[in-house]
């Protein structure tokens, strides 16, 4: 069994640096040298008061020393190292780029616009992305918004599509009519049978 120092030396560079930063940020908070309120991400403080360090420091404070902190640091040590030594072996720059790219979160509503921005950055044609956004908006308007406002639906799924799905038993059909039981009883059949009066 290797010593903790040998294990630390064997860690790949990005996971080692990130885990170390997380550990020492938590130590500084625990020793009350840093306050957690100076670390969290708050966009008004970043853009109005130019506290731009918050864009980075929010990723380094995992939690105060606790079981939660230990589990999070262990996840970095386990899965970060596994990724860096496995899928990103000898590709440190790619792993760092994946970490940076993964740090950016956005609502799914903005994903098409983010993809369009990537098209601009990489010099691709904008027309396919713009057409996709336009078609998506048109579909949403005619399938959801217009029927809610007027009660008329112009984009109903054709019956032949429902028949194909039913024929091949693909997934579930939310719109399929439910047939009543043959004997005319609308119950589920769970409580059928003889009944006995209680408290006699």
From TrEMBL:
<feature type="transmembrane region" description="Helical">
    <location>
        <begin position="21"/>
        <end position="40"/>
    </location>
</feature>
<comment type="function">
    <text>May be involved in the degradation of misfolded endoplasmic reticulum (ER) luminal proteins.</text>
</comment>
<keyword id="KW-0256">Endoplasmic reticulum</keyword>
<dbReference type="GO" id="GO:0006950">
    <property type="term" value="P:response to stress"/>
</dbReference>
<feature type="transmembrane region" description="Helical">
    <location>
        <begin position="95"/>
        <end position="118"/>
    </location>
</feature>
<feature type="transmembrane region" description="Helical">
    <location>
        <begin position="130"/>
        <end position="149"/>
    </location>
</feature>
<dbReference type="InterPro" id="IPR007599">
    <property type="entry name" value="DER1"/>
</dbReference>
<dbReference type="GO" id="GO:0005789">
    <property type="term" value="C:endoplasmic reticulum membrane"/>
</dbReference>
<feature type="region of interest" description="Disordered">
    <location>
        <begin position="176"/>
        <end position="200"/>
    </location>
</feature>
<keyword id="KW-0812">Transmembrane</keyword>
<keyword id="KW-0472">Membrane</keyword>
<feature type="transmembrane region" description="Helical">
    <location>
        <begin position="52"/>
        <end position="74"/>
    </location>
</feature>
<dbReference type="Pfam" id="PF04511">
    <property type="entry name" value="DER1"/>
</dbReference>
<comment type="function">
    <text>May be involved in the degradation process of specific misfolded endoplasmic reticulum (ER) luminal proteins.</text>
</comment>
<dbReference type="InterPro" id="IPR035952">
    <property type="entry name" value="Rhomboid-like_sf"/>
</dbReference>
<keyword id="KW-1133">Transmembrane helix</keyword>
<comment type="similarity">
    <text>Belongs to the derlin family.</text>
</comment>
<protein>
    <recommendedName>
        <fullName>Derlin</fullName>
    </recommendedName>
</protein>
């Amino acid at each position: 069994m290797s010593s903790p120092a040998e294990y630390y030396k064997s860690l790949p560079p990005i996971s080692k640096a990130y885990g170390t930063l997380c550990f020492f940020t938590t130590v500084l908070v625990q020793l009350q040298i840093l306050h957690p309120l100076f670390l969290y991400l708050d966009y008004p403080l970043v853009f109005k008061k130019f506290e731009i360090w918050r864009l980075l420091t929010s990723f380094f404070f995992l939690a105060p020393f606790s079981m939660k902190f230990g589990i999070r640091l262990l996840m970095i040590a386990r899965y970060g190292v596994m990724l860096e030594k496995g899928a990103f072996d000898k590709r440190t720059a790619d792993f760092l780029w994946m970490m940076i790219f993964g740090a950016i979160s956005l609502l799914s509503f903005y994903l098409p616009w983010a993809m369009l921005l990537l098209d601009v950055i990489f010099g691709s044609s904008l027309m396919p992305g713009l057409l996709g956004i336009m078609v998506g908006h048109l579909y949403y308007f005619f399938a959801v918004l217009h029927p809610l406002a007027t009660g008329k639906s112009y984009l109903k799924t054709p019956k032949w599509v429902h028949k194909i799905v039913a024929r091949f038993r693909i997934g579930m059909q939310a719109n399929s009519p439910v047939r009543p039981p043959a004997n005319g009883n609308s119950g589920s059949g769970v409580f059928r049978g003889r009944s006995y009066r209680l408290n006699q």
